[in-house]
Amino acid sequence: METEIEQREIAAPYELPEGWKWVRGAELFEPMESTRPAGTTFDYIDIDTIDNGKQVVAFPKVVATENAPGRASRKLHAGDTVFSMVRPYLKNIAYIDESLSNAIASTGFFVCTPKNFADKRYVYNLMKSPYVVDGLNAFMKGDNSPSIRKNDIENYPFPLPPTLAEQQRIVSRIESLFAKLDEAKDKAQSVVDGSELRRAAILHKAFTGELTAKWRKEHGVSDDSWEEKRFDEIADIKSNLVDVAEYQDFPHIAPDNIEKKTGVLLEYHTVAEDKVKSGNHRFYAGQILYSKIRPYLSKVVVVDFDGVCSADMYPIEAKENTRFLWYQMLSNEFLDKASNSGSRSVLPKINQKELSIIPMRTCSLPEQQEIVRILDVVLQKEADAKEAAEYVLEQIGLLKKSILARAFRGEL
Predict the structure, then answer these.
(1) Residue 8 has what pLDDT?
(2) Helix (H, G, I), strand (E, B) or coil at 282
């Protein structure tokens, strides 16, 4: 390798194992080549075509040559790595395989074509590493589309083992570990992705009576005991606008403070902190707050404190079991009814009259209490499983960063 690289003095960013060398980008990569599209159509790679989660070209574009963008002029080869110089922190990085070897990339990319002493997959993994991404981020300039220049990459020092065989061993180790992590990631992601469907299925069973079928049988309650009532027969929709000047220190809840479809109350502030000026509704502990705008988002929460809520919300008081009504309002069945009852304007909303007449399936108070007891347990387990899976996903991301960091210090 020594004969093929013009070794210039490079300030070592960190200590390398014996035999490794620091090589500037200009010494590591072949000069980029320019080309223009030919034929009727061509495959075009721009930033939108990159899946920056998986760091692959996921959506290559087929573009008519006559409509070729002016930026379509970077020639690609199989084994290249494209590195976006626009907002490099977004990690729009990808490996060019044989199927894309005739594609053309945007000039927004730096095309890393390794010289013959560098393994192609080694370079790809190196360009994804925290050392390279974070290091190059430091050179960003500009406000609207902060970018780095090709000179920044050409002058950047890259760590390189002395032989292709050692580089390939490192690649093999990285990709073996990543394959195991990706398998775990897929399983954790399936838990997260399926959470909403599982919640919906559980709530459906609750309000069709399926969840408490065994309970009814044990307690001698007929399956026909369920009945349909109007919303205003099982709850009071409160409308008590107040002058917010008198409630400056009270908690203020708006639709944005409620997570959609989960009934989770997010961070909120006081009336004064939110600088509320217009009239709002007074609410009390034990009531349900329901957003009347965009009912398809299903923003509904039970509160255990007094406060003031946006005029875009209804404080609701259940006539029997509050949590039973709250869970039912989180169900897809209620969501569909509310969404179809409201206006179809640019900002869909459901008014008090429309909400009042929505049909609701209900049952005896003891059965409501049993449904709430079961849902509290089952949905908490579901929430815990989702949270655990999200934690796993976060840890996998950190592990991958750690593996890449260690790999290019020779510590793997």
Answers:
(1) 54
(2) strand
Cα–Cα dist 46/94, whole Å: 11
DSSP 126: H
Residue type at position 94: A
| DSSP one-letter string for 132-161 | HHHHHHTT-B-SSS-B--HHHHHTSEEEE-
Beta bridge partners of 362: 227
Q: Which amino acid is at 61?
A: K
Please report where in the chains the tokens 């790679």 appear, as a residue. 45
For 308-326, give one letter per residue: b (16+ CB within 10 A) or e: bbbebbbbbebeebbbbbb
Structure tokens at 396: 């996998």
The model's confidence at residue 2, banded by pLDDT at 50, 70 and 90, is: very low
For the chain, the average pLDDT equals 93
Distance CA(389)–CA(384), nearest Å, equals: 9
CB atoms within 10 A of CB 201: 12
DSSP element (H, E) containing 387: helix 365-407
pTM above 0.85, yes or no: no
What is the distance between the alpha carbons of residues 151 and 234, in angstroms, rounded to a whole number?
70
Tokens describing residue 319:
């006539």
For residue 11, give both structure tokens. 């300030």
381 — phi, psi (to 5°)?
-60, -40
Nearest CA to 242 out of 219, 204, 207, 271 is that of 271
User: What is the identity of the amino acid at 58?
Assistant: A
Read off the pLDDT of residues 130-142 as tens digits, 9 standing for 90 and up: 999 999 999 999 9
In tens, the pLDDT along 320-330 reads 999 999 999 99
Q: Which of helix, strand or coil describes residue 21?
A: strand
